[in-house]
Amino acid sequence: MSQIIAFDLGASSGRAILGRLNGSRIETEELHRFPNDPVPVGDRLHWDILRLYHEIKQGLLKAKHAGIEPASIGIDSWAVDFGMIGADGELLGNPYHYRDRHTDDMMEKLFKDVPAAEVFARTGIQFLPFNTIFQLYALKQANSQRLQPDAKFLMIPDLLRYFLTGEMYNEFSNATTTQLYNPLSGGWDAELIRKLGLSESWFGQVLQPGAAAGRIRASVMEELGIGAIPVYAVAEHDTGSAVAAVPALDRSFAYLSCGTWSLLGTEVDQPVINEAAQKYNFTNEGGVAGTYRLLKNIMGLWILQESRREWEKAGVTYSFSELVKLAEAAQPFAMLFDPDDPTFLHPGDMPSRIREYAKRTGQTPPEDAGGIVRSIMESLALKYRYVLELTEELSGKAFDGLHMVGGGIHNTLLCQWTANAIGKPVWAGPAEGSALGNLAVQWMASGEFKDIWEARRAIRESFPVAGYEPEQANVWNDAYGRFLAISRL
Ligand code: LFR
After folding, report:
1. pLDDT per residue over 81-123, tens digit each?
2. Where's the Carbohydrate kinase FGGY N-terminal domain (predicted)?
3. Closest approach atom of ligand 1 to CA 238
4. Structural domain ending residue among the three candidates 233, 266, 294
5. The domain spanning residue 184 has which CATH number?
6. Helix H or strand E segment including 219
7. Which residue's CA is the closest to the ligand 1 atom numbered 2?
8. Of 465, 374, 469, 373, whose CA–CA distance to 421 is shortest?
9. I want to staple 449 with a disulfide (CB 3.0 to 4.6 A). Which of 66, 244, 455, 469 is the partner?
10. Which of 187, 211, 233 is the last residue of a domain?
């Protein structure tokens, strides 16, 4: 029986998940869970990177205390963020959080150096203000000391892997999200990097998901009293891992990875880089086994998480299930909004922003928590329909239903409303998508699974999938028309 560990770092918490493979049956156990709280310092928003590293080591210790000697480990996290390593091997400054405001006006500025159409043609990546390309450009404008000529660029999992192994590599799925990687030439886009005044030498060797990426270094072995565990590069972008774990049987499938973000799209063999993809702002992120994720980011449950935090600040603590109950009891379709309006990107008072949006668009602002949460969940479900339709148009495929994976599937009302909004069945599961995809790629690397399809079949057979049939077609169709008009889509 093969035992391995996936470290899966999400925007709100990190987990060490033990995976056991018994024949083709996968079992998982949560060894360690820890908060991942961003840290505002002055005007800047940081990740607490050393704490995350500490917690990964705690996970390894917990495994050791449970008598487990993992055959390998892998790390995945959110995309786009990074640290720079100086010539002495030390981290230059604390990595910024992608919701930091330093990239706010950078898109327009950068497009004066390299037009948007050229950036898209070279990278196939959607324009999000926080993409690495805009972060590096902002640092360059600010003459940041981090951008030393002989520095090295490591994304969050690359960096944590480096701390553990002492070896520096860039992993492919995450590298594509920088918007500096060219999937057509199959490497960093040296010309784009030069045109932006950045340095090609910062960017290192790119490892494919499943490649060997070193072993636990001697100092860590000694510190924790563990062996030289092999470390694999997995699909280190969490969305890449989540999509690897979609338990689809058919090669043509649509997915929604539902967590802090909602990522909706399909898997393709070649990136779709054309005018329509740029117009709809779709992305082509690198995946497992040569695939790409043709998808679009949707703001996701972030708006609900931030609303909950706001109410907590005001002294009212709701659990997520309480909030969903309040939403269920609130008036249907009272107020709709585009979750991807830029007003919702940065941390802060979402209920007030939703009310302002309502006023701006001639709607009655929701007053209580139930009304706010209902408007968030209905608006998300309607946005899912919009993005699913665009996915069909761009990929030329028609989907029978939608696979939902990720922690968001615990919100069963959202799953049902998604089925209602798209007018097709939703198949929800597994919730621990990213961790399972991380495990699956390690087992592909070690030869336990022959390919991604064998891994997906094993996931399908090992974890429940809940089906939701569409209901109330007429009301949801009417609401969709209103939603499109309000959102100006
Ligand atoms: C999801 C995710 C998205 C990425 C966003 C920022 O966790 O990785 O795919 O666009 O976070 O990195």
Report:
1. 999 999 999 999 999 999 999 999 999 999 999 999 999 999 9
2. 4-242
3. 8
4. 233
5. 3.30.420.40
6. helix 218-224
7. 78
8. 469
9. 455
10. 233
